[in-house]
Amino acid sequence: MALSMYSASVPVFVQMLGSLSELLRKAEAHATARGIEPAAFLQSRVYPDMFPLVRQVQIACDFAKSVPARLAGADVPSYEDTEQGFDELQARIARTLEFIRGLPEDAFEGSDAREIVLRPGTPKERRIGGQAYLLQYGLPQFFFHVTTAYALLRQGGVEIGKKDYMGQY
To answer: I need a labelling partner for 97 at 20 to 30 A (CA). Which of 14, 37, 61, 90 fits?
Structure first.
């Protein structure tokens, strides 16, 4: 049996968003136990020209909701990027998980060949097949932001490792 587009996307996003949620939980506990201001983590960056942790989480959620939505032919929900604390980031992750878990598996049928239009009507418009969109664009983008969030927390002294990054599978 061939691997379905649903199986190659939704369970992966669910696993890694669960991991990201747990990483943030451990970071918040670490900050509380050591009297560290949460903003020290939430606004941390690998380098000054990179997005801070809070934005890495927001973007990871954006890819986790937009990629499966487009593959399923569903509208991509819009979230305002207003999160300031761990609790708000957790709520964003939970909202994203609820959305993608609600996408019907049969809506992904034929999505490997479905044309995905990114930034429609803009000079940067790009048309790409569903399989390439998932495997060569969506998943790599998503993993970049989850990995960067992990690295920021690890750099900040949170006691996490590869097992924490991988989450439940």
So the answer is: 37
